[in-house]
Design brief:
heterodimer, A: mainly alpha, Four Helix Bundle (Hemerythrin (Met), subunit A), B: mainly alpha, flat, cell membrane (chain B)
Chain lengths: 198, 97
């Protein structure tokens, strides 16, 4: 069976979708920057409450997962499906690590009453409340993207097993990788803005 | 098939990706270290500069933009210019109130 496949078109379509994602997060980054301009000292104080060690660990975990996603594409391009699947598994394991660390960070804060409307946070200055409202919104939306990205990789996994994502037609894996790198890209900005504001 | 053959030959290998990852790790260490030095407003500037260098490495190498055709490169450039206008004009607006 012959089938028309538009490799460049498939990649371009993925990029156009990624532009909408960049604008979605871009709007939130604008909101963050304007609020930071209004409450610089409160943002600094609130930022000190976040754990830099956990944030840095998550940055290392996510960038490394991105490396494995990039390597899985090279593996499949070179015809080694098993190696590509191994790299994909490494990406998924690191994605789980990221979410577990995020879970501990969030649950620790929520137990301390630091969440929008929480008993501790509600008594604090408006600037600090705004910081945590933005923190939960942006890291939450980012976390949702991590979960979706994992789902996309699992879907590509089933396509590799089924033999429809192959060394000759690997664009599904390449586009899953593009999505994953975008998630990494957003975290690269979220990390300094939330954990390192001084 | 021709397009696949081209990407196979021009696409980067494992070594280059590992080198990019190492650079990203070094830049992460630098951004954490710089944040402990008190520089005032320059802290935000340096953090965003380092983040943008890291983002460029991810876009050009991990996302293969370096190896894409001119059409896709232009599209990505236009998208980022629109984002810059969007952010720039918001600041122009809020700074003059």
């Amino acid at each position: 069976m012959t089938m028309h496949r538009d490799y460049q078109g498939a990649k371009m379509g993925m990029w156009i979708f990624l532009f909408t994602e960049i604008l979605l997060f871009g709007g939130l980054f604008v909101l963050y920057s304007v609020t930071l301009g209004r409450y610089p000292t409160e943002f600094h104080e609130a930022s000190k409450l976040l754990d830099v060690t956990l944030g840095t660990t998550n940055t290392v975990v996510l960038i490394t997962s991105s490396l494995f996603a990039a390597l899985s594409v090279v593996g499949l391009q070179r015809g080694d499906r098993k190696l590509a699947q191994g790299f994909m598994a490494a990406t998924l394991v690191l994605a789980c690590c990221f979410l577990v660390i995020k879970y501990f960070e969030w649950s620790h804060k929520i137990h301390a009453g630091i969440y929008p409307g929480g008993e501790t946070l509600i008594q604090w200055a408006p600037g600090k409340q705004a910081f945590f409202a933005l923190y939960y919104t942006m890291t939450g939306l980012h976390g949702l993207h991590v979960i979706i990205g994992m789902g996309v990789f699992l879907w590509v996994w089933t396509r590799i097993v089924a033999g429809t994502c192959t060394p000759e037609h690997f664009v599904a894996l390449e586009n899953a990788g593009l999505y994953w790198h975008l998630v990494d890209l957003i975290w690269i900005y979220l990390f300094p803005l939330y954990y390192l504001i001084t | 098939m021709n397009e696949h053959e081209q990407t196979k030959h021009h696409g980067p290998g494992y070594g280059l990706f590992i080198a990019v990852w190492a650079a990203l790790m070094v830049l992460t260490a630098i951004t954490v270290e710089v944040s402990t030095i008190h520089l005032g407003f320059l802290n935000v500037v340096s953090a965003m500069t380092i983040a943008s260098i890291k983002a460029s490495l991810v876009v050009f190498f991990f996302m293969h933009l370096k190896y894409e055709n001119r059409t896709l490169k232009t599209m990505v450039l236009v998208a980022f210019v629109i984002l810059a206008i969007f952010i720039g004009f918001t600041f122009f607006d809020t700074a003059n109130r």
